[in-house]
């Protein structure tokens, strides 16, 4: 926990990290002076008919410490906030850097990653705040209070040595007992949220199948569980406040009683008794705050563990260019195997050879490894065994940057970024001219809806392109890859949400545009790949057949079946 | 401003700044409805109030007794009386702590009970709302009403309401006690309270805009994180990592700058209040001491002692009460959002309609028009007749109104004009549930619940046997993959059935339709991304499913279209052509063009 904080601060920030708690000690010290000074006024100032000078002098000290305390407190806050925010900033930058640059990032899912970089970093930030402020303030106020109480009235200080341990043990026990109950409550709440969310998302199914009653009963059960778990959890802690109060009050009475007896022998003064009681109140408050801080630390612990997992992701060493980019655009897979970390093979023994300028089609069931196959080609993942060559050069010898300038991909999920249509298309090539963009848009049949938007290419794109339909996003996705004018183009099932007529238009335009250029197409519809020079049929990570459409109709029963379904009755085969 | 919904609120300390002001009318209505929940608990509430009064009085009296003990028993060394009075106090404190516990105990019960019943009301109201309601309210928003807003109300009840009450009792009780003991020192305490209030207000006002900026920047930052990470693959493929990171760093810097300004100022609030308290502490001691010397108004060391404790006990609740007013505003805004759903108009009651017995399955649509917004018809003058057992395929481009048409059949939306009859009975005269129990639906993107596979299938007909489930799964070609799942039919599905492929989810929903054994079937065929092998399974299963049922199919598969008894071609909400596959091809119109576009690739 501490080393993460240390690694993400530098220079002045580290100074602040220490300055904040040090200054805080000034506030604690000032606060602790007040009861003693008060006792001095009561005992010395009022003695023998009163001494105004003592009262005024001591009073000035009290005011001085009140103001000093304020400055120390504010100073601690200023330094602590600075350290914590800067740490958060550095940590966020670091995590984003890692997340964006790691390749084999299957270990942590995207939604989890997002929560970690948003919420957990804020948690860590608050942790630094706690460490520099409450973590110092509460225990020191507690210790300081005990010391000061012992100094001001040593004769009854033993009361504290009974009360403080008793209360600490008691509080610790309650917290230990209640934590699992709160965990249980949280689990019940997660469950009811799931029930409610499913009812909302599946409302059409609920209504269509008349499941209202069933859903309602399910909800009622869960709702009762939540209620019971919440009651149990809260009941476990509400005993804390009455007990602390009663223990404190009884110790005050004890202080008065024992103090009173000592008073008869002139062993203790009024002021000392009053100051002692005041310290006791400070100590009790400090104790409650200490417990709070400790439990907030344990919460931050979870955040720390989750962040450390990201920090420990394997990352690549930067690669320098050793081989020139090959001019040819052939693709060769040689006994390629691939498995995600420690899992079973996703691709097994893939062999094929695509000549420069040829068109490759890939077809197969969901989960058969089509997308993984092209991900290997762009080195989003590295092969587990075997080798891949582009233009005769092993792709591991090329830098990622070289490789990705040669290959452009229109991925299956058409991700758009907030900005404008043009800024999204320029992902393909930053230097592309407006004419380039328009041309690509036209090929991808995106021109028709771009022209309906008032600002054309400069029309805004909201987060994740939510202001475009699925089909429109797919077409922009294709256009973006085309803007790159790549030597090798990969289209990963990019027209699934486009209607048939538009799909046909896109296929025609692409065929024109990519004439004589290496193109890889993953498709569900046979019609998109029927004219390929080579078609790969994948099933469960294995290459079960390869050849042209005509060859496969002869050789592959699987391909025949698919063709039969999609093209119907064999009339076009 | 870009915004990530649902993300900002979670860690927004100051979300109430952005809440709209409530009008007085809404306010009184909302309070009335909240009160309605509390009235049910009036006996418990009354007990809580009673206990509160007892504990408060004990605390006030106890503090004063401390002072009296100093003055009258310790200073004058009356030890026997000291012992007696100390024993009384111990008894009093023990007694009061039991009351204190009871007070908390009842409060937990009241607030959890009320939360559960508010949650119940919003859920059960939601069950009765028409589908149009869900079209107009995003699920994220409704979800946040059911979770965050109900939580906020709970906080309001548990903390605000009771603390406000105990706060008021404490403040009034203490004020009286203090005034009786020493009006002069009371003024010191009141000035301190006023000082605290003034400082807090001033700082809150000074930092308000910084906090708004901080929250805005945090929103921007979070949505940038979300967007970037979701688009990681694209960013990597297009080599944009460095530029995206430098943009992110700039946003991060902006957030930190604003956050620092906000936290720097708001962080001085605590130390300032602490200072005011310490100054008041000093003032009570000094003024008290001088008064004793000058012999004013019966001030003694014991009085100073009592006031030093009163100071803490008095300012605490006052500061709390100020915070509570903010919380209260937030909770009322939340309550209003919750009650909006609770009070929304449900689907009309149909209890008076006669129950409908079995249905043969003749469906007739006559001159049906429909629009989601009044005055804007999406469907215009649709007439379709389906005889029992027939298959009607509906085809047309995206947005033509195909899905809307089938939604009308199950009374998910009310018609604007025209009639739909089943076996000659107008569906207005058939209870929704009777109607829906006779229609099985396979949606384009089927929804599965996080229950076991078996339970999901059983949703089609809850009283079916296990053997029925297997039969249905076999008929739906789902049996083989189900058996390969870790626990077979008892495998629990995860949230959103992510542990199944899309094709498998479809097969399960077909099994659900099989087991329902209905005379009518509505099938919205999937367009996309179903793998080819599973596609075959689905096609075979649906063909079987359609047998002997009157089926309305939004068709994307050639085989379905070819085998349909009639094809209805819809465009822009109107029927443009109808007939069989052969007829329509021969007519060489809209349908023929649509059909040919799919296969034009083959000819080129």
How would you concisely characterize the structure shown here?
Chain A has 573 residues and is of the alpha/beta class. Chain A has helices at residues 2-7, 12-45, 52-101, 110-132, 134-152, 158-201, 203-208, 212-237, 240-264, 270-311, 370-377, 400-406, 421-425, 434-443, 447-450, 470-483, 500-513, 549-555, 557-567; strands spanning 331-339, 345-354, 359-364, 385-390, 393-394, 407-410, 419-420, 460-461, 488-492, 518-522, 534-539, 542-547.
Strand residue content of chain A: 5-15%
The general outline of chain B is elongated
**Helical proportion of chain B, percent range:** 55-70%
Largest sheet of chain A: 6 strands, mixed
CATH class of the domain at 331-567 in chain A: Alpha Beta
Average of the residue pLDDT scores of chain A:
87
Q: Strand share of the residues of chain B?
A: 5-15%
Name given to the CATH architecture of the largest domain in chain B: Up-down Bundle
Q: Largest protein interface?
A: A-B, 164 and 151 residues
CATH fold field value of the domain at 331-567 in chain A: Rossmann fold
Give the assembly state of these chains: heterodimer
- State the total count of DSSP E strands of chain B: 10
State the end-to-end CA separation of chain A: 65 Å
- What is the CA-atom radius of gyration of chain A, in angstroms? 36 Å
Which stretches of chain A are poorly predicted, pLDDT < 50 over at least 5 residues? 569-573
By CATH's scheme, which homologous superfamily of the largest domain in chain B applies?
ABC transporter type 1, transmembrane domain
At CATH's second level, what is the architecture of the domain at 331-567 in chain A? 3-Layer(aba) Sandwich
Helix count of chain B, per DSSP? 20
Number of separate strands of chain A: 12
Protein name (chain A): Abc-type multidrug transport system, atpase and permease component
Membrane topology (chain A): Multi-pass membrane protein
GO molecular function, one term (chain A): ATP binding
Pfam family, one (chain A): ABC_tran
